[in-house]
Amino acid sequence: MAPFSNPRQSPGSVTACCLALGILLLAGLLGAGPARAHKVTVFAWVEGRRVYTESRFSGGRKVNHGKIRVFDDKGQLLLEGTTDDQGAFAFDVPKVCDLKIVLVAGMGHQNQWIVPADEIREAAGLPAGTPAEEPVAGKQESSGQKQASPPAPRTLTPEIEKELEKILDRKLHPLVRQLAEMQNRGPGLRDILGGIGYILGLVGLGAYFRYRRQDKEDSQ
Amino acid sequence: MHISEGILSAPVLAAGAAAAAAGTMAGLKKLDTDHIAQAGILASAFFVASLIHVPIGPSSVHLIMNGIIGLILGWAAFPVILVALLLQAVFFQFGGLTTLGVNTCVMAYPAVIAGALTRPLVLQTGLRAKVAAFACGVLSIFLSAVIAGAALMATEKGFFNVTLMILAAHLPVMAIEGIITLFGVEFLKKVQPELIGSFKAQFKAGKGE
Q1: Looking at the predicted structure, is the pLDDT value of residue A19 above 70?
Q2: Of B49, B55, B192, the CB nearest to A35
Q3: Fold for the domain defined by A40-126+155-183
Q4: How much is the pTM?
Q5: How many CB pairs under 8 A join A and B?
Q6: Three-state SS across chain B?
Q7: How far is B127 from chain A (nearest CA, A)?
Q8: I want to staple B60 with a disulfide (CB 3.0 to 4.6 A). Which of A37, A186, B44, B152 is the partner?
Q9: Cβ distance of A21 and B52 shorter than 8 Å
């Protein structure tokens, strides 16, 4: 094996372990294909008065027969349902407020997605809620918009604006979904190597402290 | 086998954290200078193994490799698994930071128990050692499922239902881990027999083969 000989630890063990680890790492990377998953995500969007949800394990496998629970902003359970074979579940908007959609995929897998009240209102074509009802985030956003675009003369009639919004929604939904999917990509090479780097660092740190203690004991 | 955040109640999380801390203290005491490198290599292996998915079965399951870690390291499996789980939570979003203690218990106690139970037989030669190594891989996953079931019983449909569900999902993993442990141990015995257990006993066992 290795040409040098260490009286404490034979070099064979290190070589063997490195070999085994290399095989594992390779398998991990190869296995990082479509079947990989160990995190569940739920993604929801509103169209009209219906909320659509999609649940999947990271890596793309759909969660079939996962449980979906919908809570309002006060944490009260509004409705419950089960995802179909495609990991999809849709329901009518039960209440105009921030909806917390919790996916329980069994065996300790869970995640959530929050649909803001504004999105529901916009999709349903309802006027923006009364100021008291409006969430803080929505307020900030609208005030920010005002600052960005000083009161420009309105050239669009409300009808055209509504139509435009609908069309934009339709065009943007695939993009939004794609973005959500990209976020759900499983760990890549960078994550794996980063983690292993941390472990190597810890090994070095551990070895340093142990040897230092040993040196002290030896010198005494 | 990683339990996500937001499922378990505070008492379960606290109990898991305390049990994991106790195990880790015990493990750190056992982890002497000569075993630090091994521990690091095994931590890397555990960290990566979770990315190898077994596409069989109703849910998403992956390799765990706690059996062989317990066999080689004994109690020192605790700090190794804790570190690997922490990094999995940070880098892969598997499990979570609040459930770190519970998840460590789910995977590290079975490693220690399965390792301790099978080590005397694994150190022997012939068929008995092979069966023991295979059993170590299977048993560690089985015990993990039982502990995970116990942790989840308050929030899901009772201990037996959850445990049976997890066990059913992990049957292929059990078989694969049994085989991996078997070949891993055979390989180590040939190449580096002193890795398993105390130095002298293994060296003899390895030479005797």
Answers
A1: no
A2: B55
A3: Immunoglobulin-like (2.60.40)
A4: 0.71
A5: 144
A6: CCCCCCCCCHHHHHHHHHHHHHHHHHHHHHCCHHHHHHHHHHHHHHHHHCCCEECCCCCCEECCCHHHHHHHHHHHHHHHHHHHHHHHHHHHCCCCCCCHHHHHHHHHHHHHHHHHHHHHHHCCCHHHHHHHHHHHHHHHHHHHHHHHHHHHCCCCCCHHHHHHHHHHHHHHHHHHHHHHHHHHHHHHHHHCHHHCCCHHHHHHHHHHC
A7: 23
A8: A37
A9: no
